[in-house]
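REVIEWER CHECKLIST
Item 1: Sequence provided? yes
Item 2: Single chain? yes
Item 3: Sequence as submitted:
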Amino acid sequence: MSHNLWLRPRTADPDGTGQGSHKVSFSDSSKSSRQDSSRHSTSSRPSTPRLLSPRGDKEKDRPRSQQLWSDNRVWQRVNRQSEALWQETPSLQSASSPQPRPFLIYHDSFLNLLGPSPTLSLLISDPRAPYFHEAGVFHPKTNTLFVTSNQIPDQSPDAVTTQNKTIVITKIEFFSPTDFTRDKVRCPERNYMANGGTNYRDGVIFCAQGSLREPSGLIYMEGKRPHKTTTLLNNYHGRPFNSPNDVVVHSDGSVWFTDPIYGYEQGFRPKPQLPQHVYRFDPSTGDIRVVADGFGRPNGICFAPNEDTCYITDTDFIHGDGTKVHSRAATIYAYSVFWTNDQPYLTNRRVFAYADTGAPDGIKCDVYGNVYAGCGDGINVWNNGGMLVGKILIEGGCANFCFGRNGEMWCFGEHKLWRVKLADETQGALLGV
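Item 4: Structure as written out by the authors:
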C-alpha cells in the first residue's frame, strides 16, 4: 500500500484563465512514458544520447498527468499542472541500503543528469555528534573527502573563547565507494571553528570563523599528513572579518569568500566591525577587496563553468540563534563577472532562484552549467536559466555537499553522510573529474 502526500501546486492554469484545478489523478500502476522531449529546453542536458526513447503512438498519446513512474523506478515525475504526489520514504533499514524514489523530476532534462541507474545510499550514521555539516572538499590525489562538523560541545580550557564549542574536521579516505577509513584531522590551534572549504593547490582552504580571541580568516591546509596549516588572510586592512563561511577559487588564482555574522550571533565572535560582504583575495599580490554587498547573510558561493557568472546564496531566512524568518531571503543571486582594467567586477545582480524549502546553503555547478544547492529537503537542481529541473530528496535536508569522480556526490546531513551516484558524465565544474 502506498502512502502519498500532495505538495504545493505549481502551474495549475494552462489556459491562463485562473480557473485551473490543482488536482491531478494518478495511478501507481501506470507505467512511465518515455517520450521524446526534444521540444523541451536542453540547457540543463549534457550532450549525450537521450536516456528516454519514444514509445508507440498509444503511449505517446497518454495525458502527461497520467505519466507516472513505474514500480521499478527510483525517480518520480512532477506533473506540469501540479507538484503531484510524493511517496513517503520509509525508515532506513541499513547503512548501505538504497533509498526508494529519492529523485524528483521537474523537467525531463534532469533524467540525463541522473543517468540510467541513479542511487542514494547512506554511508555513515553517527548519533554521537553532527560530524557532517559543511566544507565538503574532495582531494583527488589522495582520494580523500574532508568535511567540517557543526558545533560540538567542548569543555576543554581552549574552548572557553568559543563558548565551549568546537568544530571537528573529518577525513574520509576511500578505497572504493563503500570501503573507506574515517579519521579526525589534528589541526593547529589557528584553525578555529572551520566552516566552508575548497580545493587549493595540493590541499584545502578552510574558512576559519575564529573565536572571541582568535581572528577569523582563510587557512590553507596541506592535503597530506601531517596536514600543516598556514594562515593566508585574517583581516581586511586591519579590521577583523565577521566569520567567513564559504570559499571558492577562481582560475586566475584569486580566492573569493563570503563573510556573514553567524559567529557573532552564535556567541563565539566579537561584535562585527564590517558589513556582511563578499570578498576577493589575490594571494599573489595580497590585494583584498569587496566585490559584493547588500546581503542579509551571504553564504554559499560558486562560479559557472566558464566563470562568466558568480552565484551567491543569501540565507537570511535562518539566523545564527536558529530563528527562522520566512519573510527574509532564501535566495540564490546571480552576478555577471565583468572585467575592466585587468580586474573582475560583479555586475547585473539578479534573483536566480528562491528555495521553496529551507534556505540554499552550499552551492555548486556541474560541467554543463546546472546549479545545485543544499536546501531543507535535499539537493535542488536548476538549469542555467533558473528553472528548477529536479531534486534529490534527502531525509532531514542537506546543508552542503560536494562532487567526487564520475557522477559521485557526497551530501551532508549533520549526523549522516550520504552518497549519490548520478550519470558518469555529470561532473562537478570545480574539478571536472
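Item 5: Key structural point noted by reviewer: The CA atoms of residues 272 and 299 lie 16 Å apart.
Item 6: Recommendation: ____
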